[in-house]
Write a structure and sequence with these properties.
Layout (H helix, E strand, L loop, with lengths): L2 H7 L1 H4 L3 E2 L1 H7 L5 H9 L7 E3 L2 E5 H14 L19
Antiparallel strand pairs: 1-3, 2-3
Length: 91
């Protein structure tokens, strides 16, 4: 079987895009690669696949990670409280 025939048999695999590190970082708002690899090490981010020594990420997995973070919400919004002062403001 040729490569083209294999791809025709597995359209879902053929439609997956692979991303390089700069594209993954951009999708995550410019996350530093050290932070990214720490998340991978902690099991909190999808690991890359290796192709000839190069790291590539499946675009669908990165989008799923982003969607999960959005579902978790942004957390409470911090409120700025003014501290009461004893100062008298002259009019």
């Amino acid at each position: 079987m040729s490569l083209n025939q294999d791809l025709e048999l597995e359209p879902s695999a053929a439609s997956r895009r692979l991303l390089r590190l700069p594209a993954v970082q951009a999708a995550l708002g410019g996350m530093h690669k050290t932070t990214l690899y720490a998340l991978i090490r902690d099991g909190r981010f999808p690991p890359p696949i290796k192709i000839g020594g190069a790291s590539r990420w499946v675009a669908d997995e990165i989008q799923a990670f982003i969607n999960e973070r959005m579902q978790e919400g942004r957390g409470p919004v911090p409120r700025c409280r003014r501290q009461p002062t004893n100062e008298v403001v002259a009019a």
